[in-house]
């Protein structure tokens, strides 16, 4: 039986960073995709995360199967909550096969959204015009996004938004449908302007490893204009591995690098930054989750 360190090395994953000064959450991750693409099991991902002080994670679904997995993982693991949705690219693909199939999938999201307090968010939903380029796909994404907004409101859940080249459509649909009480812009991909437009509605901006990339000056400008209480951190693992490990696969334990980067950019010490991020994650996902926020245990 190999140690976790050996296991990470054998899968080509980066080593464990030094433990953080205080516990934080990875506010958006995909342990099922990490297992499929990298080979690290969800249990191993959680163990690696816990070792470096990433005590909680939000497991995010992108299709029916992934949303069911998220619900189950959160139901059976302390420190895990779920987000459920049909990803905009999956919505476009499903509708292209059969509009009825998309409607059924969204019904299942609605059912899972009501599964209990371990399901905290509807997401990731939104607009992706990078991978879906045709007008019909765009129309389907806007409709599916509106349906997810309605589900989030009906269940009093947080809305976790995926936005890839979709800023205007996202704001347009949110304005038309009305913003839910809690909105997270996951893997925030805009600059200071978009940040301000989202902050007007008290959204949280969640920064992934991208913010550490040399090319990400706009995201760093967004970070600079975001009030500290609106900042979240995430991996979106297995993608978007932060510097200095860029180019390797990602896991929730590597969110430690992004958290340290954020602390440095904000000019605050690591412990204060971790506490801030942890409190923010609890607020963004409805509070009362886990121990660090003083909320009741679920
Ligand atoms: Zn996404
Ligand atoms: Zn994601």
TrEMBL record:
The cross-references to NCBIfam families, in alphabetical order and at most eight, read: YchF/TatD family DNA exonuclease
Q: What's one GO MF term for it?
A: DNA nuclease activity
Signal peptide (UniProt feature, chain positions)? none
Pfam families named in the record: TatD_DNase
Q: Which Gene3D superfamilies match?
A: Metal-dependent hydrolases (3.20.20.140)
UniProt entry keywords in alphabetical sequence: Hydrolase, Metal-binding
Q: Which residues bind a divalent metal cation 2?
A: 162, 186
Source organism of the structure = Acidipropionibacterium acidipropionici
Name of the protein in its database record: AraC family transcriptional regulator
Keyword Hydrolase applies? yes
GO cellular component terms, semicolon-separated: cytosol
Membrane-spanning regions, if any?
none
- Residue numbers binding a divalent metal cation 1: 28, 30, 124, 236
């Amino acid at each position: 039986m190999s140690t976790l360190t050996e296991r990470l090395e054998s899968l080509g994953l980066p080593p464990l960073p030094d433990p953080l000064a205080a516990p934080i959450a990875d506010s958006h991750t995909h342990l099922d995709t990490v297992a499929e693409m990298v080979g690290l099991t969800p249990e191993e991902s959680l163990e690696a995360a816990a070792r470096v002080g990433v005590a909680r994670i939000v497991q995010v679904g992108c299709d029916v199967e992934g949303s069911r997995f998220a619900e189950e993982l959160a139901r059976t693991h302390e420190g895990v909550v779920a987000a459920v949705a049909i990803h905009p690219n999956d919505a476009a693909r499903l509708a292209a096969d059969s509009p009825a199939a998309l409607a059924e999938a969204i019904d299942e999201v609605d059912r899972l959204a009501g599964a209990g307090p371990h399901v905290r968010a509807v997401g990731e939903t939104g607009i992706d015009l990078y991978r879906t380029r045709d007008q019909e796909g765009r129309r389907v994404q806007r409709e599916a996004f509106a349906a997810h907004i309605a589900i989030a409101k009906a269940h009093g859940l947080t809305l976790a938004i995926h936005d890839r080249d979709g800023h205007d459509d996202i704001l347009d649909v949110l304005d038309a449908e009305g913003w839910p009480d809690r909105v997270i812009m996951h893997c925030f991909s805009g600059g200071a302007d978009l940040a301000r437009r989202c902050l007007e509605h008290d959204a949280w901006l969640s920064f992934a490893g991208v913010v550490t990339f040399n090319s990400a000056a706009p995201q760093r400008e967004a970070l600079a204009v975001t009030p500290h209480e609106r900042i979240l951190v995430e991996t979106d693992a297995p993608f978007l591995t932060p510097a200095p490990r860029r180019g390797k696969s990602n896991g929730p334990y590597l969110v430690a690098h992004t958290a340290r980067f954020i602390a440095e950019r904000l000019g605050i010490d690591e412990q204060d930054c971790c506490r801030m991020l942890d409190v923010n994650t609890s607020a963004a996902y409805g509070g009362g989750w886990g121990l660090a926020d003083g909320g009741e245990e679920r």
